[in-house]
Amino acid sequence: MLYVMEKRSKLSYLAQYASQIDKFRPETCCILANYYSMKCEHEKAIMYYKRALTLNKNCLSAWTLMGHEFVELKNSHAAIESYRRAVDTNPKDFRAWYGLGQAYEVLDMHLYALYYYQRATNLQPLDKRMWQAIGNCYEKIEQLDEAFKSFSKALSIGKVVHGPSDSNYDVKDSDEAEYTVEPHICYRLAIISEKLGNEKDTYKYMKLCFAQEFEWGVSDETSKARLWLARNALNNWKFEEAYELAKDLNHSNAHDIEEARAIARDARNRMKNQLS
């Protein structure tokens, strides 16, 4: 818990306290491993996880956590071995199945990754990260319909609904309920819709992605969505809308910023021509 909450000072105190009581207990080794992991000293963390397993081979979580450390070191093959030992010992550890998926995805073995992500999702079906991971794999292997379904599932799980005033507002109470979602999910849905030739859904998800800028702040995805919407508005003769969208695009790569400036200039000139 202290590790997840990033309470380094408290974790440091706990590690020191546990070491003074009994430094050869597997629990102490796991605490020390967590401490070194938080300090990004992954080799030391691995050493203590191995020591914990030497002291108690039934210390099940150590295999999974050691796999995470190998992933941080970009040692995918060692990570896979650790995660395999974890699922052999405890087939219900969704973190180990998910870790196997990540390790194989790093190796560009997307069919293997997909299989392991699906195993993780069966154990943790309401975790949007699982559905995003599955969607990424389907997109990589060009199964776009399945990718769209997976990202849609992630979107529905990740929605945070905002009502007019009540914190317990139910989305069913009004057709005008607003919600926030992760921009990345919206953007992937927009890109997949574009690949599928669905213009209506592409516009819908680009607009939804851009709307998240007010909740999540400016990001690469919201900036790309802004540019797409500006381009779309210009092509549909909505010059004022195109200008307003394009003129404020400052967070992106140089190519996108230059394109936005060109759209803003073009839209401004066309508005002047309409007035003259």
Automatic annotation (TrEMBL):
A GO BP term here is: cell division
DNA-binding listed as a keyword: no
Coiled-coil annotated residue ranges, if any: none
> A Pfam family for this UniProt protein?
TPR_11
Listed PROSITE patterns: TPR
Example GO CC term: the record gives: anaphase-promoting complex
Q: Which UniProt keywords apply?
A: TPR repeat
TPR repeat boundaries? 60-93, 94-127, 128-161
Q: Does the keyword Translocase apply?
A: no
Question: Which InterPro entries does this UniProt record tie to the protein?
Answer: TPR-like_helical_dom_sf, TPR_rpt
Could you name the domain of life of the organism this protein comes from? Eukaryota
UniProt-recorded name of the protein: Likely anaphase-promoting complex subunit Cdc23
Look up and give the organism this protein is from.
Candida maltosa (strain Xu316)
